[in-house]
Write a structure and sequence with these properties.
binds adenosine-5'-diphosphate; Rossmann fold; 6-stranded mixed β-sheet; alpha/beta; binds magnesium ion; transport
């Protein structure tokens, strides 16, 4: 078995000179298939920067990132966008749904970009909506859905391409406790069927759902509840 995510000596510096910010300062991390990992840490510690690099939304200044065994640093823009579309599902705190467009069409969107035909798109989008328990809301527009339901649509959109992993940046940050429970139940279900999940949260009870917790401070990993996995001792 090989890690889904393998980063080593990862650095990310924003700006230069006076305004230089070292957002990541030497991060080593391996995430194995089927793991559910929570990333915690104070505001400004580098969590989103790390997740954006893992999601190929940002490139590191130094260090390597292997995704499913592929060195992401070797890929050109076109290959990167393929990787983003096929291997990664991203969920943000703000749901980022297309307004005035049905839940179904929102979920279909990544498949449109992937060039999947209409009939298959419908089937796969419906299956993804079923996974998040929203088949009966397929025709609803975002403004006709609660926050928790909108986030579940966003999660269905992240899942519809069958990604190797789902990355989530404070997905319950805008939600009340009931909606938080609904969304976390979907993540639990996903993990039970073997999906790899990396989720940023600053709430202990949210992080408690994950089997493993990594704490980031000042651009470095300062705690990892399963150190032994990082050395590959399991394999
Ligand atoms: P967190 O998600 O843990 O709150 P971030 O990863 O967003 O932290 O930010 C880490 C540090 O990098 C912060 O000091 C932040 O101000 C800085 N930073 C993040 N993004 C940028 C950017 N695009 N340009 C400049 N500085 C940035
Ligand atoms: Mg953040």
């Amino acid at each position: 078995m090989k890690p889904v995510i393998e980063v080593s000596a990862l650095h990310k510096t924003y700006g230069s000179g006076e305004t230089e910010v070292h957002a990541l300062r030497g991060v080593d991390l391996a995430v194995w298939p089927g793991e559910y990992l929570a990333i915690m840490g104070a505001s400004g510690s580098g969590k989103s920067t790390l997740l954006n690099v893992l999601g190929c939304l940002d490139v590191p200044t130094r260090g390597t990132y292997k995704l499913d065994g592929i060195d992401v640093g070797d890929l050109n823009e076109r290959q990167l966008s393929l990787v983003r579309n096929r291997k990664i599902g991203f969920v943000f705190q703000s749901y980022n749904l297309v307004p005035r467009t049905s839940a179904m069409s929102n979920v279909e969107l990544p498949l449109v970009y992937a060039g999947v035909g209409r009939k298959e798109r419908r089937e796969r989008a419906m299956a993804a909506l079923e996974m998040v328990g929203l088949v009966d809301r397929a025709g609803h527009k975002p403004n006709q859905l609660s926050g928790g339901q909108q986030q579940r649509v966003a999660l269905a959109r992240a899942l519809v391409t069958g990604p190797a992993m789902v990355l989530a940046d404070e997905p319950t940050g805008n939600l009340d406790s009931e909606s938080t429970d609904e969304v976390l139940a979907v993540f639990d279900r996903l993990n039970r069927i073997g999906r790899t999940i990396v989720m940023i949260t600053h709430e202990d009870h949210v992080a408690g759902r994950a089997a493993r917790m990594v704490r980031v401070s000042d651009g470095q990993i300062v705690e990892d509840t399963s150190q032994w996995r990082r050395t590959g001792a399991l394999t």
